[in-house]
Design the sequence.
């Protein structure tokens, strides 16, 4: 007998389960091509700088999946069952769909732990999930974005406001502060396809800045891939230099394209950008990540409920 529950496939980029899993993870990102010894050494060094050989990063995603299950249970007891599907690590997206089907689930909703849609990011997650769901006879509804959800905006506004006040205390009264919203860069070619990613990020940034009472802000990019094609810029390291040259002594980093602490936050901002800021004589403070903030969990749960009500009885 089919399970009457609605399956929820919560997806994210994925991270290795331990330092020993970095090579397999990097190979999957490179579509089956093993990294060179130099590439592997560099990525391993970055993880080691962040976690010191102890690997808690996977737990961030696990906690978010558990928090989402709790939020869904509170909103609609017994209606939803949450499964994980990762893009580049186990359980892979296809594994999550298979687990649903094995449990007898026939109706599912997919959501990514990233609020903004791009065909190259969220779109690729959804296409993999959809393909596997069709193979296994599971009806699948994709939630493409939730970047303007009021509870998401509220959670980010609070973080920007709190961090802005902290930074003002560190830099001194009257010192100008620049707020830099950021997200993972993507190849410039997404603009040719009228991909909504960039505009969605700007829309979120604008709403959050307005809600936090911030007028002096900008948007920058980070964590670009190392490929031959051009990626969206300017990079945060370039923007920091320009901001310092403009006379700012305080910069607030608000990486709104990410929802938890992982390498792109803990290394790219907290180590790399922080070192650059120090060299430039700029005080850099980052907002807290969303993690399992109740408002973020409610954002996800609300989005899932709305999507499932639209198509499933």
Sequence:
């Amino acid at each position: 007998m089919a399970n009457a529950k609605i399956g929820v496939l919560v997806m994210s980029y994925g991270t290795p389960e331990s330092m020993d899993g970095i090579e397999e993870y990097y190979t999957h990102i490179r579509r089956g091509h093993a990294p060179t010894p130099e590439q592997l050494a560099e990525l391993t060094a970055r993880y080691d700088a962040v976690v010191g050989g102890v690997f808690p990063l996977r737990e961030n995603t696990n906690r978010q999946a558990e928090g989402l299950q709790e939020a869904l249970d509170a909103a609609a007891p017994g209606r939803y069952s949450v499964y994980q599907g990762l893009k580049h690590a186990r359980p892979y997206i296809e594994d999550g769909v298979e687990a649903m089907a094995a449990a007898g689930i026939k109706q599912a909703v997919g959501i990514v732990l990233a609020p903004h849609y791009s065909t190259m990011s969220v779109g690729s997650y959804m296409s993999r999930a959809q393909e596997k769901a069709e193979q296994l006879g599971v009806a699948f509804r994709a939630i493409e974005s939730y970047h303007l959800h009021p509870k998401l905006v509220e959670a980010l506004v609070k973080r920007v406001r709190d961090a802005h006040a902290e930074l003002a205390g560190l830099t001194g009264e009257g010192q100008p502060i620049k707020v830099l919203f950021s997200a993972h860069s993507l190849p410039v070619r997404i603009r040719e396809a009228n991909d909504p990613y960039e505009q969605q990020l700007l829309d979120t940034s604008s709403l959050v800045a307005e809600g936090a009472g911030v007028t002096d802000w900008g948007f920058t990019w980070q964590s670009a891939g190392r490929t031959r094609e051009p990626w969206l810029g300017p990079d945060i390291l370039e923007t920091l230099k320009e901001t310092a040259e403009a006379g700012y002594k305080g910069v607030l980093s608000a990486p709104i394209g990410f929802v938890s602490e992982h390498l792109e936050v803990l290394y790219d901002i907290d180590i790399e950008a922080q070192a650059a800021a120090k060299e430039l004589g700029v005080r850099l403070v980052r907002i807290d990540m969303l993690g399992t903030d109740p408002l973020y969990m409610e954002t996800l749960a609300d989005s899932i409920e709305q999507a499932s009500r639209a198509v499933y009885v």
Summary: Strands lie at 3-12, 80-86, 105-112, 139-142, 177-184, 217-222, 250-254, 283-286. The longest helix spans residues 150-171. The longest strand covers residues 3-12. The domain at 3-146+293-311 is CATH 3.40.50.1400 (Rossmann fold).
